[in-house]
């Protein structure tokens, strides 16, 4: 009886000890997560950038040598390309917004009258023509019923622009983090492979290669193309003095990442430019914007590599969910991480199928 009581006490003491240790580990993990949470998005994005551009760094190192200087030069160039246009265009956007608001108050903004072709637009043609004609005669009176909504919209737009500046700052920090990863690439690669082997066992090295190819493919084929479309659109709109050009460029990039046609945004911008004139410059602008909007279909296959057969829905959900979770940076990180999760699922399913096929072979041989 005494032995049973002693054995029970030992089990209780062991259970209490295990519970205390698990609780302490849980507390440490939770607190560590809360501490790291504000930095997770930018660190993840920095790691993703490092993985995506490491082949470029390796090629440049083979040709010119001195890996560290190449990484620092590219980092400075990218940061300058982010900060300089954002600074100049954001100032111009604020100035344009204030001018537009003042002119609207004074009633000095004029809208050119619509052409008869507007009436032929499907569904909304007649109403659009009537509204446009009224606005061309007296814009202030026409927009008077919508004054409160316009003010709220402009306020939200300026607030979004402020958020965009904050996002650019996060991109700058992520670029610096990626430079750190690239400089210590050997240690970073070894660390990732060790984690992959720990989690995936014998399949660790295969998963490390597949995940790396997936990251590069999504960044180059989806995010890279979207950034290119946004940057080119911004340049063309800046030449045509399109108001709030940086906002429309960001929206073009956003819909491109979601795998939607960029013409959703660039189409109305082209229509606005033609409403201001229909000369050679406007025609060239329209052609260039259409090429940019439709060019992703030709560029994407060249930039997307092996292991990036993630469906459009996966990229879309990842981008939208990532943005809701982490803000603007999450738009990029979410698309990559969710595509990576999709590849992990297919990798796991393929392993299950291989095991099932092996078992069937063994049964048949027996």
Brief summary:
It contains 13 helices and no strands.
Note down, in words, how this protein is organized:
This protein is mainly alpha-helical. The protein is built from 13 helices and no strands. It has helices spanning 2-64, 67-106, 125-137, 139-143, 147-183, 185-200, 204-239, 245-257, 263-276, 280-294, 296-303, 312-326, 328-365. Helix 1 (2-64) packs across helix 5, helix 7 (204-239) runs antiparallel to helix 11 and helix 7 (204-239) packs antiparallel against helix 13. The longest helix has 63 residues, at 2-64. It is elongated. The two termini are 53 Å apart. The relative contact order is 0.09.
Average pLDDT number = 76
Largest sheet: none
What does the oligomeric state look like here?
A: single chain
Task: Tell me the radius of gyration.
Answer: 28 Å
The 3D shape can be described as elongated
Tally the helices: what do you get? 13
Helix/strand order: HHHHHHHHHHHHH
Total number of beta strands: 0
Assign a percent range to the helix content.
Answer: over 70%
Note the gap between the termini: 53 Å
Unreliable stretches: none
Strand % is under 5%
Structural class: mainly alpha
């Amino acid at each position: 009886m005494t032995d049973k009581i002693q054995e029970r006490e030992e089990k209780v003491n062991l259970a209490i000890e295990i519970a205390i240790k698990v609780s302490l580990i849980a507390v440490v993990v939770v607190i560590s997560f809360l501490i790291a949470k504000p930095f997770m998005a930018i660190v993840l994005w920095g790691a993703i950038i490092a993985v995506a551009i490491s082949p470029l760094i390796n090629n440049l190192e083979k040709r010119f040598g001195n890996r560290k200087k190449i990484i620092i030069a590219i980092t400075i160039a990218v940061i300058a390309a982010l900060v300089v246009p954002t600074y100049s265009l954001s100032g111009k956007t604020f100035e344009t917004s204030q001018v537009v608001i003042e002119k609207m108050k004074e009633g000095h903004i004029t809208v050119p009258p619509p052409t008869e072709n507007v009436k032929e637009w499907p569904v909304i043609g007649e109403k659009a023509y009537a509204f446009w004609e009224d606005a061309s005669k007296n814009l202030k009176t026409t927009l008077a019923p919508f004054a409160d909504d316009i003010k709220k919209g402009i306020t939200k737009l300026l607030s979004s622009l402020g958020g965009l500046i904050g996002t650019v700052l996060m991109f700058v920090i992520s670029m610096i983090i990626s430079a750190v990863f690239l400089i210590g690439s050997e240690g970073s690669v070894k660390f990732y492979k060790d984690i992959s082997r720990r989690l995936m066992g014998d399949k660790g090295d295969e998963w490390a290669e597949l995940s790396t190819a997936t990251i590069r493919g999504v960044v180059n084929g989806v995010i890279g193309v979207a950034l290119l479309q946004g940057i080119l659109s911004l340049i063309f709109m800046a030449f045509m003095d399109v108001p709030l050009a940086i906002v429309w460029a960001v929206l073009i990039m956003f819909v491109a990442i979601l795998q939607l046609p960029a013409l959703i945004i660039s189409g109305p911008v082209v229509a606005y430019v033609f409403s201001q004139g229909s000369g050679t410059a406007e025609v060239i602008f329209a052609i260039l914007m259409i090429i940019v909007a439709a060019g992703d279909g030709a560029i994407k296959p060249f930039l997307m590599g092996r292991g990036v057969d993630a469906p459009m829905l996966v990229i879309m959900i990842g981008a939208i969910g990532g943005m809701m979770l982490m803000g603007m940076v999450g738009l990029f990180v979410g698309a990559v991480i969710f595509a990576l999760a999709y590849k992990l699922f297919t990798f796991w399913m393929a392993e299950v199928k291989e095991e099932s096929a092996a078992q069937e072979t063994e049964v048949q041989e027996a």
